[in-house]
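Notebook entry, structure prediction.
Reason for the run: the old model in the group folder had no record of what sequence produced it. Starting over properly, with the input documented here first.
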Amino acid sequence: MSATLSAPVNRARTTEAVALADGKYLYGIIDAPAPATFDVPAIGGRGDEVHTITLGRLAAVVSNSPRIEYDNSRRNMLAHTRVLEQVMARHTLLPVCFGTVGSDAAVITEKILHERRDELLGLLEQMRGRAELGLKASWREEVVFEEVLAENPGIRKLRDSLVGRSPDKSHYERIQLGEQIGQALERKRREDEQRVLDRVRAFVHKSRLNKVIGDRMVINAAFLVDTALEAQLDASIRAMDEEWGARLSFKYVGPVPPYNFVTITIHW
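New structure, fully documented this time:
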């Protein structure tokens, strides 16, 4: 998502010149009253400095940028994310939607830091001392299929009855088998998802369950965690991996920008 502000233009300038005039690309909001810079490449590959615009306790993390609409290419998304990661290492962060460009520092100061001051300070307080971590778990395909057959004699019997029969003559039975396997997998997915959540619940401030991708994924979760409990969450996930690793593979990432719990959208 992007929000682009077009400033009033000088009639003597061409449309192209106006489009490429420098604005401010906005990465996020932090609590930092003193001006700051960050040693990380800005989006756009021009060598612009990542710096802050401050008003009281609030600061917007920005870099100079043409007033253009940024494609959500891998290169641009990585540049945006790397800035956020660098900022997170030093400050509590409220990420701003990718592709947000304002016309100048004065507009950002007035429209965001001044007009939304109380909202932003409140959100920063909610995020203070917390981090987002992501967890995905997926079945090992050969294991879960054997579990389905072992737990569902009717599915095994139907599967065995199709051995040696031509697809043309067993079309509807094969559809029925696929539906029954799908239903059994969904039941197992819900059960395994709940087992994972039960194991981490004590260490998590908030959870968000995102859509699972494909038939093998059991859980696609984001956790907002107090940094004081992060080591305990790490240990819990390591224990699950050791205990269930023969049937589940785990992917655990973070800390990452807290997109799943707060993302600032700017409407100029």
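Summary: Residues 1-19 have pLDDT under 50 and may be disordered.
The old model has been moved to the deprecated folder.
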